[in-house]
Amino acid sequence: MKKLNENMETKSNYRRIIGMAVAIIAFAVITLVYFSPMLEGKRIKQHDIEMYKGMSKEVYDYREAYHDEPLWTNSMFGGMPAWNISFSKDSNKITWIQKVLSVGFPEPFFAVFISMLGFFLLLLTYEAGIWVSFAGAVAFGLSSYMFIILGAGHVTKAIAISYMAPVVAGILLAYKGKRLWGCVLAAVALALEVRADHVQITYYLAMTVAILIIAIAIKSIIEKHFGDFIKTSLFLVVAAVFGILPSTMQLYANYEYGKETTRGAPVINKSDDNRTQGLDRDYITQWSYGKGETWSLMIPNAKGGASAYIGRTNSALEAASPRFRNDIANQNAYWGDQPGTSGPVYVGAIVMFLFILSLFVSSDKLKWALLAATVLSILLSWGKNFMGFTNFFLDYLPGYSKFRAVSMTLVIAQFTIPFMAFIGMAEIVKNPERLKNKMWSFWVALGLTAGICLLFAIAPRLFFNFMSQYETEQFAALINGENGSVYKDFSEQLQNVRVAIFRKDAWRSFAFIMLSAVPIFLLAKGKLKEVPAMLIIAVLILVDMIPVDKRYLNNDNFISKRQFDKPFTPTVADNAVLEDKSLDFRVLNLTKDVFNDASTSYFHKSVGGYNGAKLRRYQDVINEYLSGEVNNLRSSKSGGEMFGKLGSMKVLNMLNTKYLIYNPDAQPMPNANAYGNAWIVDEVRLVNTPEDEIDGIGLEDTRRVAVMSNEFADEVGDYHPTQAEGTITMTDYKPNHLTYSFSANEDKLVVFSEIWTAKKGWQLFIDGKESSLLRADYMFRAALIPAGTHEVVMTYNPPFWPIGNTIATVSSLLLIAALLAMIVYTVVKWRKKRKTVTE
Q1: Are residues 420 and 499 both part of a single domain?
Q2: Of 192, 240, 536, 712, which has the most beta carbons under 10 Å away?
Q3: From CA 376, how far away is CA 378, in angstroms rounded?
Q4: What total of structural domains would you count in the chain?
C-alpha cells in the first residue's frame, strides 16, 4: 500500500511538472504574441529611454573609448554624478540569473514574462495549485500599469515590479517552515529586485513586506509559535543582507549622492510649510490620484483613460451635437485630478470581483494584511487629495519624502489585489463546499463589483460631473462672460461624450464580471471542475486585459532598431556647435524645455537636462536665477535684443554657456560673455549662511569677486592679490579628469566652471600633490593655487567604487552558488526518493 501511494505521488509530481512547464510556455507565448514586432528586430519608442540615451551619451562614449566608468558626466545640469544615469553593473554577477530567467527576451520585454513567472512562483509556494497560479500570474503580468510604464520607458521600474512577487514568495516560504529554500529564494529575488535600481519600487515592496511580517508575527503569538517566528526572521535578515550586498556600491553611492540632490535635506533653510526632509510637498504630490479615479482599478476609463485627444474616430463623439464634434475631438479624454497621465492602474474587473469575493470566503488570516496594504496604497495615492494622511507619512515615515509621484504607491495594490484574489480562489478550488455554504458572499461580491458597474453605466451623472476641477473653473468663467451660452452648450456636449466613454467601459467591466461569475458559480455547485474553471477564468482575464493594455502600448509604438539606437538627429544648429573643437563649454537650447529635456545632452554639454534627482544646489540656482535668465532671453523680440542681453546673464556666463540655440535651422548665437572654463578672482567675500551665498551671486560682480562660505575661511585666509596678471587654461578634458595649466606671480583663487559636490569624489592635485578643493558662488568648485606655473588636475574617483565592486562580485557569486547548491540538493533528494519507489 505504501509503495502504491508513493507511485501515485510520483505520477502526481510528473503531472505537476508538466503543468508547470505548460504554464511557463504559455507565459512566453503571451509575451511573444503581445510584443510580436520584436521578432522583426523592432523596439518600443519610449520617451524616457530617449531621454536616457541623451543624458548618458557622454558616459557611453567614455566607456567605449577607455573601457572604464567615468562615474561623472557634464552632459546635463552643468555636471552631476552618473549613479542615477548610467554605470556598469558588470561586477554584480546576479545579472546571469536574470539572463536565464528572461529566456532570450530582450529588455524591456522580459519584464512582462518575469512578472508572470514570479507571481506564478508566489502562488505555487502558497500552495494555490498550478491552474489557479497560472490565472493569477496572467492577471498580475497583464496589469495595465506594467504596459503604461514600458511604453513611457520606465524600464527599471517595470523590472523592479516584476521581482516583487518572488521576494514575497521566499519570505512566505521561509515562514511556512521551508526556511532554507525560502531564505535562498528571498535573497536571490531581492538581489535581482535591488539590482533593477528603482529604489522607490523597492521601498514600496518593503512597506508591503513589513505589513505582511507584522501579520505573521501576530499570528505566531496567537498560535504560540513566536520562537519559530523570531528564528525564521533572523534567517531572513541574513538573507536580506546577502540580497542587498551585490548592490552595495550603487546603494551607497545613491545614499551619499542623494544627500546632495533634491531628494536630500534642503541647503537653504526657509520657514516654508512646503518643505520636507526630502522633496517639496507640492512636488511629491503633484501626481496625486483623485479619490474618484480609484474606480479605474475596476473600470479602465473611469476618468477617461490617458491624457490625449478624444479624436475624430472615437465613436463616443456620436453623443455630441454635430456642431461641436470637431472641437470636442480636440479636447482631452482624461478628466481626472492629475496634471496628466499615460493611463490608469487597471488591475482588472474580474480580479476586483475575485478580490472582494476572497475577502469574504478566505479563512487565511493573511487577508487582513493584504487588505490593509491595499487600503494604505490607495489612501497614499490620493496625495494632496488626502493631505492630512499624506503629511503624516511625509513627516514621520523615514525615506518617504524622498520620492515623487505618490500615485505610484498603487503598485502595492497592483500586487496585493491579485494575490488576495487568487489565494481565495485556491481555497474555493480546494473546497467548493466552502463557497457553496457561503453563497451570500458570492452575491455580495457580485453586487459590490458588477452591481456598482451597472449603476455607473445606467446613471453615471449621479456619481460624476465629467469635468476636471481646472475645467470646471475655466468653463465657469467663460460661461459668465461673453458668448456664455455657447460655452455652456459646449461644456455639456463635452460631458456627454465623456459620459459615453465612461459608460462603455462600465458596461464592459460589468460584462466581464458577470462572465467570470459563471464558472465560479458552477464550480461551487459541483458542475465544473478546477482545470476548466480556471482556464475559463484565465482566458477571460486575457480577453479583458490585453485590449486595455493595447490602448497604451501596441504595435504603433514600435520603431526600427536603427531609430531606437539613434533617437536624435543633429540640426543645423547642432552641427554648427559640433564644429567648435574647444575642449569644454556648455550650450543653452531655447527650442527645448530646458530643464526637462535631455535631447540637447546627446550632442552637447547642456545647461539643462532631464533627471528627477538633480543636485540640490543646482536646482536652487535654477529657481533663483537660471529660470529667470532663460525666460528673459526667450522674451526677446529679435535676435539682436537677445544678443544684447547676454552680458547680463550672470549665471549662464558663469556656466561657460558659449552658444545659444534659438532656432534649430539657423546658426547658433555665440556668447562672448561666457567666463570660460575657469577664472581668477580679485577678491573673496566671506558669508555666514547658504542664503547669503546664493544671494551673493546677484549682489556681486562674480567675474572678479567670489562669494564663499565661512567654512572655507581657514583655506582662503586674507586673500588680497596685488597683481591682476595670471592665467588658467584647460588643457585636457575627460568628464572625470580635468587638466589645467596655471601661471601667476602670486597665489590666486581660481573659480572653476564646474559643479560642486561634497568632498567625497572630486579631488584636486597641483603638480601631483593633493590640495584643498573649495566652494565658491554657492555651486562652483574653487581652489587657491600658489604662485608659479603648475599643472592643476581634478579627478572624480569615489573611494567606495573599487570596494563596492569587490563586494558585489563576491556576494553575488556566493548567492548564485547557494542557489545552485539548493537546486542540486533538491534534485538529488528527488532522484533518491524516485529510486526508492522503483525498487
Answers
A1: yes
A2: 192
A3: 5
A4: 3
